[in-house]
Amino acid sequence: MVGSSQPASTFKWTTIHTLVCLTAAIGFAFDTYELLMLPLIASSAIRELAGVTPDSATFKNWLSALFFVPAIFGAVFGLLGGWLTDRFGRRRVLTGSILLYAGAAFISAYSTSMMMLLICRCLVFVGVCVEFVAAVAWLSELFDDPKVRERVIGYTQAFASFGGLMVAFVNHYLSHLGHDGHLPGITMPAFAVPLLGELTNPDVVWRYTLMSGLFPAIPLILVRPFLPESPKWAQKKAAGQLKRPSLMELFTPELRRTTIVSTLLVGCTYGMAFGGLQQFTPIVKGLPEVVEKVKDLPKPAAGAKLQAEAAKITEFQEVGGLFGRFLLAFLAMRILSRRRLLWVFVVPALFMLPLIFYTFSQGENVHYFKIGANIDFSLLSILAFIGGALVISQMSFWGNYLPRVFPLHLRGTGESMAANVGGRLIGTSFAFITIQMAQFIPIQNASGTSKIAMSAACVTLFLTVVACILTAFLPEPPPEEHE
Questions:
Q1: Which residues of 320-351 are buried (b: 16+ CB within 10 A; e: fewer)?
Q2: Do 203 and 303 meet the contact criterion of CB atoms below 8 Å apart?
């Protein structure tokens, strides 16, 4: 049996543990990689495929659709994926979900219309939503000792921030290659031309960024034959003791409060990320000092330069997120109350997130600082680091908390309700709300960037206040998992 009921002092780490943790870490990393592609490539993709400018209503509608429509699909099919995880096993659903989002990301690089890109993004989102649920359930059942389990789930989730860093660095690197004209062109495969048509003068930077989403499928194919099923799930399945999962059981008196409060709180966490942090990209592209850098450049070079500046901010945000995830993993072993642990991050966010976005709504320029000869960073970079640390750490919290409050036969379904309905549906909808509300911000003579920043300040203030209140009602997990 892979899991162990021995004390942590006698626990022996095996090759199987390494493979499972490696697979889960790759999945977590590329979950973030795939999701954070969108704010980096959306503007360039819409300009090319829809032929509109960022100031047009059509552009804003497509941008909102790219954020919100995949979230709806992800929530619905992610909830189904959670049920499938409980019904058919963790390993099978996990590997299938990773192959789904990796393949869809690669195919999306050949999009010839906004509708094709939107459909591919929906498939990516479905795969990401299912993968998180299956991986967390899998890890939580592999280790019986609570301390080992907390550390493993906490530190493997830290790889999600490595995924954010990877996509930022990849996009930044590709932008520089594109600016210098060193990226080869992309042509439609001959077999797909009758169906999709040719690619005419494509912008290769955003397309190569999407193609890179295929990477996680490669190691998965190699290790898949050696991966075991969850030992606890497999034992109960073999013994005929595994109850059939039921969505309605989440709303029985024993689980109702846990389900509702955790779903709403996960929604607040994702709302801070999508309605706040992910708005850094359009904000930085409209800042005066950034616009000044590109005003004399040809259009393709200017677009690549703007993309590179936005990728820099994403890098700082994800470094902050990585710091926050490690801090969460460290504190999780020292703060026993889960409410207090969550408050450690939610209360500072109440003050910092609205302040960060309000500062830039006032038209502040970017103040650059130098480190050595080649590295520079801005005030926005520092604030992105702080925001990333406070918000992304909360995402790791839910990966540790949710497996402990739902019974084994409902673990995937319960996690999926909170993570997909709360996070991917309710939470990601705040990206749409922030973008739409920016059009009605009553600031005279303000740029679109200032309005987006003020809108993000209002949204994050609302979400952090709600999160602080709801945390008081968050149930504490039982001392031992109720199987």
A1: bbbbbbbbbbebbeeeeebeebbbbbbeebbe
A2: yes
As a whole number of angstroms, the longest Cα–Cα distance in the chain is 71
Pick from 334, 342, 333, 151: which is nearest to 262 by CA? 342
Cβ atoms 78, 419 nearer than 8 A: yes
Say which residue the tokens 């690619």 belong to: 199
The per-residue pLDDT for range 435-470, each reduced to its tens digit, is 888 888 776 655 667 788 889 999 999 999 999 999
For residue 474, the model assigns a pLDDT of 95
CA-based R_g, the chain, Å: 22
The answer to whether 294 and 305 have CB atoms below 8 angstroms apart is yes
Do residues 62 and 46 make contact, with C-beta atoms less than 8 angstroms apart? yes
Packing angle, helices 299-332 and 379-405, rounded to 10: 50
Cβ neighbours, 10 Å, residue 453: 31
pLDDT higher than threshold 90 for residue 178: no
C-alpha span between 340 and 194 (Å, rounded): 59
**472 in Cβ contact with 342 (< 8 Å):** no
The whole-chain average pLDDT of the chain stands at: 81
* Residues counted in the chain: 483
Distances (CA, A) of 184 to 203, 213, 257: 11, 18, 55
CB 77 within 8 A of CB 85: no
Please say whether the beta carbons of 209 and 310 come within 8 A.
Answer: no
pLDDT band at 360 (very low <50, low <70, confident <90, very high): confident
pTM for the model stands at 0.78
**Residues 25-69: pLDDT tens digits?**
888 888 888 877 887 888 888 988 888 877 788 888 888 888 888
Give the contacts of 48 (CB within 8 A, at least 6 positions apart). Answer: 202, 203, 206
